[in-house]
Every structure is written in structure tokens, then in C-alpha cells.
Amino acid sequence: MKKHNKDVLKATLFALIAIFIMIGAAGLLFAEHKKKIQKEQQKKAAIEALERVPTVTPTPVITRAPAFMASDYMGTWYSKDGLVTLSIDDLTLKSVTFTFSQAGDNAGTKVSEASDTAKVAGNAAKLSFTDSWGNQVRGNMTFDQGRLYLRLNTASPAEGAGVTPKVDGVLTREKAASVTPADNTDKTDLSSKDYIFPDSNSRYLTDEDLSGYSSDQLELAKNEIYARHGRKFVTQRIADYFNSKSWYKGTVEPETFDADTSVFNEYEVANIQKIADTEGKLRSEGK
């Protein structure tokens, strides 16, 4: 009987051990399965989150138009009197390489020459070079809507220099013919001209343009800009001059006109001031 009880107890023990092993194995399998399900859920959630990310539109790049077109200025330019030659050899938005020459007269017996590279900022280049005579030359070059403006002065003349560069004007593509005495006479004969400066409302006048005129003639040139806009004149000499011109129509009283100067564009404003300054200087010299 005791032996039978022992056997039953032993069998029960083995059964319990087997049950515990099976429960443990089942627990491991369940934990592994649960872990696998969690991984699948995490993967699915990550994919869904990725799909919810909004599409980013790239920020447009703002580009600025260049200050000037270099190709418009390459090549050779001349002053109106034919004494200055400027060759643009290389031009970018950062630098300009050029060759400059200025003759002392139309015969070209004495010439100032120089080659240099200058930095460009915006639409202008600041110039500083030493010419073939040893003169220290300063100035600037401006690129303005296809027009090339050159201003140079001799800051420090060299001893014995045959030519001291001085330029102030808009250069052209065509080389001018030599100026003769007859040309100078025609320039100051205002009676045969409709306008003294027909384009003073569309370009900046230069020292070269104003040279050769008396203070009285420059006074007329200054008032020519006013006359274009119909201003009447009180001074008889000025009124008679413009009344003789077919294009002049005096319709605005001086007091009314002078109260509103907004009719002038930028060229006219600058040219009125430049002519007035030159006129005043000549008048103080009695010319």
C-alpha cells in the first residue's frame, strides 16, 4: 500500500513538473508572439506617420537683374572732340580692364596713355591709375543703360607732362571729326538754331557741352529747359529769344510755374543746376 502511494505521488510530481514546463514554454511562445505583434504595430505606425508628413515646397530663389549688360560696353569708345579713346578690353559685374588715351590736340603730337583694371560696384567703377607721363589720374566710369560716362581728373600732374588728362562726358561709338574754328563759330551762333541743347531733357550735359558759350548764352540754354514746359518770361531779351522759336508756346505764368517744379525729370534737374553753376562762374569772370 505504501509503495502504491509512493508511485502515485511520484507520478503526480512528474505530471506537475510537466505542466509547469508546458506553461513556461507557452509563456515564452506568447511573449515572442506579443513582441512580434508590437514590432509590426510600430512599423505600421512609422509608415503611417511618414505618409502624414506634408510635402515641402522649395523656397524660390530670388535673382536680381544685372546692373548692366557687359556686352553693351565692350570695344572702343570716343569723346565728342575726338581726343579721348577708351577701349573696354574685359568687363564683368566685378571688374573692368581698359586702355585709355587722350591727345593734347587734334594733331596727336602729345598723348597720355594708360592700361588698368578697376573694381566694379553696381553700375560704376572707381578709377585710379598712372599714365605714360607719370600723372596720377583719378575718376570714375559709369555704365548707364547702354551709355558710357567717363569722368577723369589729374590729381597729381607729373613734372614736365605734355598732357594732363581731364574728361567729363558721355563717350560715343563714333570717332568725331576734328573740331575746326568754323565749328566753334557755328556753336555759339544761336540765331540759326531751334535749340541750344535739343537733348537736355534726355541726357546729362557735360563740361564739354557747355564750353565755348558765354554766360548770357548759357542763361538762354538754362531757360530753354523751362521754355519746353511752357513757362512765360518777364525779361524782354529772354522772352524775345524764345518767341522767335517755332516750337515755343508760352502758356504758364512765371509765379504759377515756379511754384511747382515737379514737371522736370532727373536729367533736366541736373542740367539746370550744371548750366547755372557754369553760367555763374563765367559771369563772375566777366564772360
Largest sheet: 8 strands, antiparallel
Specify the overall morphology. elongated
Total strands: 8
Helix content: 25-40%
- Rounded mean pLDDT is 84
Run of helices and strands: HEEEEEEEEHHHHHH
- Our estimate of the beta-strand percent is 15-25%
Tally of individual helices:
7
The poorly predicted ranges are 179-185
Q: How do the strands of the widest beta sheet line up side by side? A: 1-2-3-4-5-6-7-8
Could you tell me how far the N terminus lies from the C terminus, measured between alpha carbons in angstroms?
A: 157 Å
Structure class: alpha+beta
Give Rg in angstroms. Answer: 44 Å
Fold and architecture overview:
- The chain is α+β, with helices and mostly antiparallel strands.
- Helix 4 (215-228) runs antiparallel to helix 7 (266-284).
- The chain is 38% helix and 22% strand.
- Strand 6 and strand 7 form a beta hairpin.
- Mean pLDDT is 84; it is low at 179-185.
- It contains 7 helices and 8 strands.
- Strands 1-2-3-4-5-6-7-8 form an 8-stranded antiparallel β-sheet.
Task: Write a brief structural summary.
This protein is an alpha+beta fold and 287 residues long.
Fold blueprint:
Elements: H1 2-52, E1 75-78, E2 84-91, E3 95-103, E4 111-121, E5 124-130, E6 136-144, E7 147-156, E8 166-171, H2 181-187, H3 207-210, H4 215-228, H5 236-243, H6 254-258, H7 266-284
Antiparallel strand pairs: 1-2, 2-3, 3-4, 4-5, 5-6, 6-7, 7-8
Helix pairs in contact: 4-7
